[in-house]
Fold:
Amino acid sequence: MNNLIKSAQLFDRAKKIIPGGVHSPVRAFQGVGGTPPFIDSANGACLTDIDGNTYLDFCMSWGPLILGHQDPDIAKAANAAIAKGCTFGAAEASSLALAELITNHIPWVEKLRFVNSGTEAVMSAIRVARGATGRNKILKFDGCYHGHSDAMLVQAGSGLTEMATPNSAGVPAETTINTLVAPLNDIPAVEKIFATHGNDIAAIIIEPVPANNGLLLQQENFLEKLAAIAHTHGALVIFDEVITGFRLAFGGAAEVFGIQPDLVTYGKIIGGGFPVGAYGGRADLLDQVAPNGPVYQAGTLSGNPVAMKAGLAGLEKLLHNSPYTELEQRTLKLGEKIKSATQQVSPVPITVQVAGSLFWIILGDITSSDGIIRSPEQIPSAHKDHFRQVFHTLLTSGIYLAPSAFEVSFLSTAHTDAQLDDYVAAFSNAIHVLAKP
Ligand SMILES: *Cc1c(COP(=O)(O)O)cnc(C)c1O
Structure:
């Protein structure tokens, strides 16, 4: 058992003055119970907490760290930037360099603007879509996460209606009346919504590989049809690539699927571990943004030079090393090893869904016809409870996963083959906890 004495003390103090003791809800471990280790330092694929426990990390700060913790090139660039000044609030060159790197290598990003988070990127892209089309409605998908702006904080309405209802207190129903929700992997439902609301829909927004509610694999032809329906009705396509951008390929899921969105949002990897987001796309759409156009959007620390130089160092390394094929092969192999190590011994069926270096282990019976989970309602109901038990056994044996059954795991270039084998061993050991009465 890990000694979490100091973490427990800090958690008690934190809970007194910070909601849940944390600054983003899932960090509080409420989905799995127990005390979250307070992390003191990290390196490569490992975390060390303040009690001195070390963990092999598969949460990786929820996605930004594709090159691992403390990548030396990113750290060097950030330190050099700090030495010249943390923020200028004025025109400067490093944000231009990062913008050029992106527009030179991702053809559908003709122009872009940097913001400070994925949430901001989505909020801004939606404003541009509405401003450019003169329409108000946005169609999103049940099971996709687009940050915590009011209009995106919705769930599917009851029954068969496409009207969204807020899924947070503090979001007035008036704020979400222009948000429509469709099921994933269901073209007829999308066609039906467009038949009713087609002239009012500014854009479809989707995570092309939904990775915030498990890993819900979509088919290329679903995404192609979506784009065709949107365009037929004069609506735009926004790919939210905050998690998949620079992760599945340099050009994200759009590159993998060969589908060019009108607008795209980035975050996570783009800042090299610093708070950065970006929205970009067709030049005529970005020309709508202030000061050139009527769509207002601003930020005190946007394009912060420390974050820009860190992001630039990270993206240059990704371009140069192109680790994507190797990362995906290693992730697939990890999935195979987990399956074969547990096949004979696991009390429950185990499935591993993979996209690039993202993976999600499902603990329970999958009943969908093709054996692949593509929408939230296909997730086995027992998965959550199984995950909670396995999670704690893994944590005790030094494996740190995102503390939720519905979060994906991340492989980085810093994970070694030996570490992945350690995970396979720890996992096939941990799975026995499910057999206990
Ligand atoms: C993480 C994420 C966001 C929100 O980004 P933040 O930086 O947490 O605000 C939005 N969309 C997707 C697809 C994400 O994965």
